[in-house]
């Protein structure tokens, strides 16, 4: 069975909703396109969150990140869009999304966006 990129994020019930604990992910192969040149941008995304009632399901998260591959986005915009989409899907207590973009034009960019319930 082949998987396709998807903007659909799946969740599952938090197994310990009464306890605060942190979940972290690292996505080292993120790609999107530069909206100015159309050339690929590469980044490592780091996500840290304290779940509320729901947790993010990993396969859907992988397909979600894959869905950006052929889209043009500025670093700041895509990092904030990802945070908004993840917060909307799982309603965490707290979440931080960090996009650590590879050097482009001699500039290394890191964008960090935060959410608190």
Tell me the structural class: alpha+beta
Largest sheet: 4 strands, antiparallel
Q: What's the architecture, going by CATH? A: 2-Layer Sandwich
Number of strands: 6
Strand content: 35-45%
Separation of termini? 38 Å
Parts with pLDDT < 50 across at least 5 consecutive residues: none
CATH topology descriptor: GTP Cyclohydrolase I, domain 2
Count up the helices.
2
CATH superfamily: GTP cyclohydrolase I, C-terminal domain/NADPH-dependent 7-cyano-7-deazaguanine reductase, N-terminal domain
Please give the CATH class. Answer: Alpha Beta
Helix content: 10-25%
What is the averaged pLDDT score?
96
Instruction: Please list the strands of the largest sheet in the order they lie side by side.
Output: 2-3-5-6
- The number of distinct structural domains comes to 1
Computed over alpha carbons, the radius of gyration is 15 Å
List the secondary-structure elements in sequence, H or E: EEEEHHEE
Characterize the overall form: globular
Organism: Eiseniibacteriota bacterium
GO molecular function: preQ1 synthase activity
Keywords: Cytoplasm, NADP, Oxidoreductase, Queuosine biosynthesis
Family: Belongs to the GTP cyclohydrolase I family. QueF type 1 subfamily.
